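>> received
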Amino acid sequence: MIGKLILGVVAIVCVSSYKYIFGAYSIRFFWIVVKYLYLKKLEDLDDKGQAKSPFVELVRTTKCCLLECDFFGYHKNNVTYFTELDLCRTECTLNALHRYFKLAVLKKESLAYVPLASICNHFMKETKPFENYEMRTKVVGWGDKWLWLITVFTGDKVGKRIYCLSLAKLVFKAGRKTLQPWDVVQLAGSTDPDVCKKAYRNEERVAQNTNNVMQLLKVYEEA
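>> returned
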């Protein structure tokens, strides 16, 4: 009887926390890659020959499950934010620059990978167990080397209070060679020089305000 009860509890925890059971992270990550590289159709250019804006916002939604909670504080463990951020950055980059990655696959060419160079998280409010939350991510700028992304974690209720803001710095690598972000963005179909000027201005703003949450939010909203 006790054994069945324990198995029942374990089953409930595993079902409610499916995204943190063994192997789930790899499945979630590679599903994003497969979806954008192989299942999603190549997006058309607009009448001006431009792809969608590289500053497009990507929104992911999920629920705070038991296995991502710190029961000493009874809230989402700060370490688990990094798992969700991996997925947010991956999907945002593949979505914002979809034409570059998709064309490389269709032409069977090698494509750049985009490793994380550094990350800075600002934790502002705890996320409670079983609470729904959103993760909104954008490419907000770039320079000669770095690509900058901001992710904002919010609740899904009216007002959408901010739980965490994350600033990530990425780099495009083709083997040992570093690619300039603007070169990749142009290959993705965004060739408007005003887009590049905006990105460089935003890099300066981000670099000057890495610890200023309000200014980073302003950059995010204006990107």
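>> The chain has a mean pLDDT of 92.
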